[in-house]
Amino acid sequence: MITGAHTVLYSSDADADRAFLRDVLGFPHVDAGGGWLIFTAPPSEIAVHPTEGAPKHELMLMCDDVDRTIAELKDKGVEFTSPVQDQRWGRLTSLRLPGGGEMGLYEPLHPTAHS
């Protein structure tokens, strides 16, 4: 029935964010026509968290070693917008996308569902 998930990032500079995903993160992609790149995402999980406010959605990339990944991405010019926060479930930070948005990056300390 369900064959995959399609994540959409809305951006004020879609071309810059596509270049970031392609050139900095190195995500494989296809051109759906006219330079409209669709990227292969790493294995993923879906978690549902309770909220007292309006429902929202987030995209966080996962890594095995957040400190090493931050160093590698900083060498490529990536700006991080928050220090690493140690949470019960993982080590979390945020990075700035070229289009102005932010994306989470974390090292899970919980069992992962995608392995």
TrEMBL record:
Name this polypeptide is given: VOC family protein
Gene source species: Streptomyces endophyticus
Boundaries of every VOC domain copy: 3-108
InterPro entries: Glyas_Bleomycin-R_OHBP_Dase, Glyas_Fos-R_dOase_dom, VOC_core
Superkingdom of the source species: Bacteria
